[in-house]
Amino acid sequence: MRIISGQWRGRKIAEPQGRDVTRPTTDRVREAMASMVDSSLPQGIEGARVLDAFAGSGALGIEMLSRGAAFAAFFDINRSAAALVRKNLESLSAPRSSYRVFCADCLASAARGRIEGAPFDLVMVDAPYALGADPATQLAESLVKSGLLASDALVLVEHAAADEGPRPDGFIVEREKRYGSTAVDLLRFDGSLTIEDIDR
Hints:
Blueprint: H1 27-40, E1 49-52, H2 59-66, E2 71-75, H3 79-91, E3 99-102, H4 106-112, E4 120-125, H5 134-145, E5 149-160, E6 171-179, E7 182-189, H6 195-199
Parallel strand pairs: 1-2, 1-4, 2-3, 4-5
Antiparallel strand pairs: 5-7, 6-7
Helix pairs in contact: 4-5
């Protein structure tokens, strides 16, 4: 797997062994996701604070760092995957101040309101397809209630094209794209809403 663009363009990063561990996002979809974000964030990717919630190899968050994101928090509950993310970042000599890797449940951490690097401008959710839209919905709403999102934050969700995408309270669907069996939905947080609005 190679980084598509930015300061580490063309550099290789390691993939997990065995698709039962994680399902790498294809180059085509990663490029499309980055383009969607870059054109939708007011300042583009440059300087953004990123949360890669189900990191796998870390490819999505690393792509954003390569393109100028200021910070990325990587979460994976699988110990081997979290170790691989660290290995990939170290292989690129990424500044230690630009990232943190957590072997932990991102949903639980968001619910507790404890994620270093917040408030986030961009949240990327590539949960196992078998879980459907629930993880993305739960994570987005927990981040809002915990005050961990910027006022115009984006949530980028990859899911199976056959499934309906997440529609968390307090978010507006900006774009929906399909790439074969994969779908990508871009949601924008409506920062004018209060927690009470979202709880209704």
